[in-house]
C-alpha cells in the first residue's frame, strides 16, 4: 500500500467506512501559507475524517508543490502539521 504526501496533506488508500456520507466533489485543504491543496473526486465524511473516491487518474494541486498524481481508488485524506513542543527553562 502506497501512502502519498503533498506538503502537509497525506493521502492513503483505504475502504470507505459504512455510514460515510457524500459531502462534495473536491477536497480543499488550506495549508499553513493559506494556499489550498485541491483534489477533485467524490468526497465522503465520517465524523471529522474525510475520504475521496477517484473514478479516473487525478492530480492534487497546490501552487507551491508539484502536482501529485493518484490512480483511481478510495483514499483517506489527512492533514499533518509540524509541531515543536514547548520547552521549560529554569
Describe the 3D structure.
The chain is mainly beta. The protein has one domain. The protein has no helices and eight strands. The protein is globular. The chain starts with a strand and ends in an 11-residue tail after the last strand.
Strand content: over 45%
Structure classification = mainly beta
Distance between the termini: 47 Å
Compute the average pLDDT. Answer: 89
Q: Helix-strand pattern, N to C?
A: EEEEEEEE
Q: Regions with pLDDT < 50 over 5+ consecutive residues?
A: none
| Total of DSSP H or I helical runs spanning 4+ residues | 0
Question: Would you report the number of β strands?
Answer: 8
- Radius of gyration using CA atoms only: 15 Å
Strand line-up in the sheet with most strands: 1-2-8-5-4-3
Instruction: Name the overall outline.
Output: globular
The biggest beta sheet is recorded as: 6 strands, antiparallel
Tally of domains? 1
Helical proportion, percent range? under 10%
Features:
single chain; 59% strand; six-stranded antiparallel sheet; 90 residues
Brief synopsis:
The protein has 90 residues and is an all-beta fold.
Please write out the topology.
Blueprint: E1 4-6, E2 9-13, E3 21-30, E4 36-46, E5 49-54, E6 58-62, E7 65-70, E8 73-79
Antiparallel strand pairs: 1-2, 2-8, 3-4, 4-5, 5-8, 6-7
Amino acid at each position: 500500500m502506497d501512502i502519498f504526501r503533498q506538503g502537509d496533506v497525506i493521502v492513503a488508500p483505504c475502504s470507505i467506512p459504512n455510514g460515510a456520507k457524500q459531502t462534495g466533489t473536491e477536497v480543499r485543504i488550506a495549508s499553513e501559507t493559506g494556499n489550498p491543496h485541491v483534489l477533485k473526486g467524490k468526497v465522503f465524511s465520517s465524523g471529522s475524517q474525510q475520504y475521496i473516491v477517484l473514478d479516473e487518474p487525478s492530480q492534487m494541486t497546490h501552487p507551491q508543490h508539484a502536482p501529485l498524481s493518484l490512480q483511481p481508488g478510495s483514499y483517506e485524506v489527512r492533514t499533518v502539521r509540524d509541531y515543536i513542543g514547548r520547552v521549560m527553562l529554569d
